[in-house]
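Thread: SDR family oxidoreductase, structure

OP (GT): Posting the sequence first so everyone is looking at the same thing. Length is 240 residues per the record. Can we get the structure tokens written out before standup tomorrow? I want them in the notebook alongside the other entries.
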Amino acid sequence: MKKELIVITGASAGIGLATAKQFAKLGHPLLLLARRVKPMQALNLENTICMSLDVTDRKAFEDAVRLAESQFGAVGAIVNNAGIMLLGNIVSQDPKEWDAMLDVNIKGLLNGVHAVAESMVKRNSGTIINISSIAGIKTFPNHTAYVGTKFAVSGLSENLREEMAPHNVRVITIEPGAVDTTLLSHTTDESIKENYNIWKEDMGGVLSVEDVSNAIIYAYNQPQNVCIREIVIAATKQLS
């Protein structure tokens, strides 16, 4: 049976890259999107389109999806994974960092939803997987703006699920705790980065990107009439 097209954003590293590998092993055609195209191309996956894309560019996002659909058929699932984490104290943090997180983490995700939702509703089938964070359900020091964006992702995902459920479209929210990725490197405050890394070491290690991609694949692989609405996943020793 022909496998359905999967779209993954932020696919050049971390969770997105690991998830791309897993879907490829399952035989799915892929549309991989990220600002850096070379790491995606280096995977050398069959039936895969790799494109450099800024998820905040709505038209470019929609054009990329239409191109992939012309080759592989309708999008069966999208993994809205692209995101940035710029930690900072709200008193001293540059507001431009808030703007960047709001644009990528919320508007970029909504652009992904917009690119696939209408077609899924018409077909009465599809899956939207939004990568939020444990910071989408609880708070952390120096995370004010980031937490705000991730609470938004978790909230809009639940509302979206209610709107899409009558059309047999699943909306799944994945909320990982600390993960071994390069996400922290975006933070410009060196003291915050140092304390964050100490926190990770003190808990004896964090999730791997494969741990999170396994959760994504597990939720996706359920029958279409089964929606795992939310997965909160964290290292066992992560207290908060």
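GT: Both are above now. Quick notes for whoever picks this up: Residues 5-233 form a domain with the Rossmann fold fold (CATH 3.40.50.720). The chain has one domain: 5-233.
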